[in-house]
Amino acid sequence: MYSFEYHRAETVEETLKLGSVLEDARFLAGGQSLIPMMKLRFAKADNIIDLRDLDELRGIEVAHDIVSIGAMARHAEVAASPKVQSAIPALAGLAGGIGDPMVRARGTMGGSIANADPAACYPAACLALGATINTTGGDIEADDFFQGVFETALGEGALVTGAEFPVPDAAAYKKFRHPASRFALAGIFVARFGDLVRVGVTGAGRQGAYRWIEAEDALTENFAVNALDGLHADPSQMNSDIHGDEPYRAHLVEVMTRRAVLNASAHCGDE
Amino acid sequence: MTNTLTMTVNGASVTRDVPANTLLVHFLRDSLRLTGTHVGCDTTQCGACTVHLDGSAVKSCTTLAMTCEGSDVTTIEGLASGDTLHPMQEAFRANHGLQCGFCTPGFVMSAIKIVERLGSGFDDTALREELEGNICRCTGYHNIMKSIRAGAEAMTSKQKTSPDNGAE
Ligand SMILES: Cc1cc2nc3c(=O)[nH]c(=O)nc-3n(C[C@H](O)[C@H](O)[C@H](O)COP(=O)(O)OP(=O)(O)OC[C@H]3O[C@@H](n4cnc5c(N)ncnc54)[C@H](O)[C@@H]3O)c2cc1C
Ligand code: FES
Ligand code: FES
């Protein structure tokens, strides 16, 4: 790891102030993406500002059919939260399926959203649920927030403070895991609000997480697996690497979408 | 630039001057000479470096030492009381849960937290899921699972005598 200086502040306000005066500063949340990248010297910063003291960013609340999660909520906390489990079980399940128990004990929702790793799980949920991302530069709709591979609309020096997830009538997240890292080779979050269906795709797309609009239209018409018959994900939009080429990922998107729909319909049948 | 860092490790307060980019695992191994915590990979995947930080199992290779200022850390060296092994350590010994032993400290530290979360009533699928963050190159996992099952029985029946319990 390159050398850097370490800082922490007690409040969001002081954290932002530090960020504005320090040269080449980077925030540290759970460190489960940033530290591995720094160890490999893929990332470097002269100043690290630790967010560990920002208790104001830790809350998890449900009110008026909105689940609000603070940026510093750890994956393990979201997974174990009875409030999230009962309001949006698919979201609690998503958090509980990230990495492994040690990664979940440190990694945070805000870090995942701010990082916008193309294989991260949260972006799929944000897109499918139509989440609002709260930042110190104002609220940003998920559709506008995720702009590509590690690219977001987050302002320079701004913090993600939390996210608001509307509670759907039915939802499911299905991930085809990379066998070693557990990140998504293809992860599909399907959410139904009344008749309206939204489909968030992560892991597969060349441009990072995206909404599969054709599938949304078909499922809004008829929320059933066979509504997807004949519908194909476009291989030219897919990512390709040693773990899976474009046609393989396109196929995974189709299969995992079907599984998510099946799971989401089963879930609302239960209620 | 060095920073003065204080934390509690295995029940004792320790203070050292460290560069800001020191990882917790290097603080433990190099500054404190607690070499039971291992480094097995560069990619946060093997879990050989697992320790308990403020009550959770974490990967000390992916935690800055500075972020642990004022925290409570338990390493594999802090589990036994005198000559009496922690029930999970004893279970690994009794059930041949290790061959070379490189991964073992990490598995033991993870396993204790698994039992604290799930008790002893978990099935094989749940246990395999929970062990996702630990890799063993020798055993084929079969005896590790057997060890954890035995350790879980011992921990849940002997909760009062477990040294790890009181500390966290
Ligand atoms: C072995 C392993 C497996 C993993 N598996 C998965 C997986 O299956 N699915 C998945 O989704 N993720 C996975 N992850 C990533 C994990 O979820 C990370 O915790 C997460 O992506 C980043 O969150 P963090 O809190 O650790 O952020 P950090 O690593 O601390 O920060 C990441 C980036 O976001 C910035 N940042 C952090 N918080 C904020 C904030 N509040 N405001 C503005 N910027 C901020 C930082 O400056 C940095 O650039 C895995 C990681 C590992 C090591
Ligand atoms: S050394 Fe920490 S996970 Fe491998
Ligand atoms: S016993 Fe050798 S790596 Fe696990």
What does this structure look like?
The complex is a heterodimer of chains A (271) and B (168). Chain A is an alpha+beta fold. Among the domains of chain A are: 1-53, 2-Layer Sandwich (Uridine Diphospho-n-acetylenolpyruvylglucosamine Reductase, domain 2); 170-267, Enolase-like, domain 1 (2-Layer Sandwich). Chain A has helices at residues 12-21, 34-39, 75-80, 82-87, 89-96, 101-106, 109-115, 122-129, 142-145, 213-221, 246-270; strands spanning 5-8, 25-28, 47-50, 60-63, 66-70, 132-135, 138-141, 146-148, 151-152, 160-166, 170-177, 184-193, 196-202, 210-211. In chain A, strands 4-5-10-6-7 form a 5-stranded antiparallel sheet. The longest helix of chain A has 25 residues, at 246-270. Chain A is globular and about 55 Å long. Chain B has 168 residues and is of the alpha+beta class. Chain B folds into 2 domains: 2-77, Beta-grasp domain (Ubiquitin-like (UB roll), Roll); 87-161, DNA polymerase, domain 1 (Orthogonal Bundle). Chain B has 6 helices and 5 strands; from the N terminus they run E-E-H-E-E-E-H-H-H-H-H. A 5-stranded mixed sheet of chain B has the order 2-1-5-3-4, sandwiched between helices. In chain B, a hairpin with a 2-residue loop joins strand 1 (2-9) and strand 2 (12-19). In chain B, helix 3 (104-118) crosses helix 5 (142-157). Chain B starts with a strand and ends with a helix. The mean pLDDT of chain B is 94. Chains A and B meet through helix 2 and helix 6 of A and strand 4 and helix 3 of B. Bound molecules: flavin-adenine dinucleotide and FE2/S2 (inorganic) cluster (2 copies). Flavin-adenine dinucleotide binds at residues 26-34, 36, 51, 71, 98-99, 103, 107-108, 110-112, 114-115, 117, 120-122, 159-160, 181-183 of chain A.
